[in-house]
Amino acid sequence: MSRTVQQLFDLHGKTALVTGGSRGLGLQLAEALGEAGARVLLTSRKLSDLQEAAAHLRERGIEADVIAADCADPADIERLAQEAMKRLGHVDILVNNAGAAWGAPAEDHPLEAWDKVMNLNVRGYFLLSQQIGRLSMIPRKYGRIINIASITGLGGNPKPIKTLAYNTSKAAAINFGRALACEWGVHGITVNAICPGFFPSKMSAGLLKSMGLDEMASHAPLNRLGDDEDLKGIAVLLASDAGKHITGQWIAVDGGVSVVTGG
């Protein structure tokens, strides 16, 4: 007998590791997985921010733990993966969300800034996926990897925005997931990408201040920015058995901006 919709979306008994999970989109994603029943492990660089985020989740009845780590540092990524295994026993769901951005004209973009963005947004996704795949998902023949990309990975930017490295890294994150899905499907692992549009966050604060909320919202057919609920549904779909036959895909959650721009 087929399961009910409620049973398919249920994450009770599952474990989730969410990078960049102390605030913004990462915390929203962790909240969604936890509300669906998963035990959640958050990581980011600052322990104080993580502790505050975990307290927020626990207030909502979510089982949450934290590990401070820098997902741009290969040694820290290895330590994070090993410690996650000790804390959780195994990792069912990996959300690669930690990211960095840099604004500069292409002709003046500093090399060190390019490397900073690429090391966290691309290499970090690869290394942590590799570690969790080796330690947990491949041996158990089960896993859900969700890479947080961006609609900036689908094309260029409106004229005032100059984030070449960020756009390039997010395009790489999308195709990294597509290639990994092809390799690891045999192990029962799905790999997908979510491409958010403009959401108010610490990363987007400068852009929103310079362009204005109303101007940014006007680029979307829905005439609004993303809010603190808009990633929850797709995250639970891709993390649960409701999405068990979805892999190698990306989906934009952007109010329709990518439809207008042809992404």
Describe this structure in words.
This protein is an alpha/beta fold and 263 residues long. The chain has one domain: Rossmann fold, CATH 3.40.50.720. The protein is built from 10 helices and 7 strands. A 7-stranded parallel sheet has the order 3-2-1-4-5-6-7, with helices on both faces. The model has no long low-confidence stretch (mean pLDDT 95).
What does the secondary structure layout of this molecule look like, with pairings?
Elements: H1 5-9, E1 15-19, H2 24-35, E2 39-44, H3 47-59, E3 64-68, H4 74-88, E4 93-96, H5 111-140, E5 143-148, H6 164-184, E6 189-196, H7 205-211, H8 213-218, H9 232-239, E7 250-253, H10 257-261
Parallel strand pairs: 1-2, 1-4, 2-3, 4-5, 5-6, 6-7
Helix pairs in contact: 2-9, 4-5, 5-6
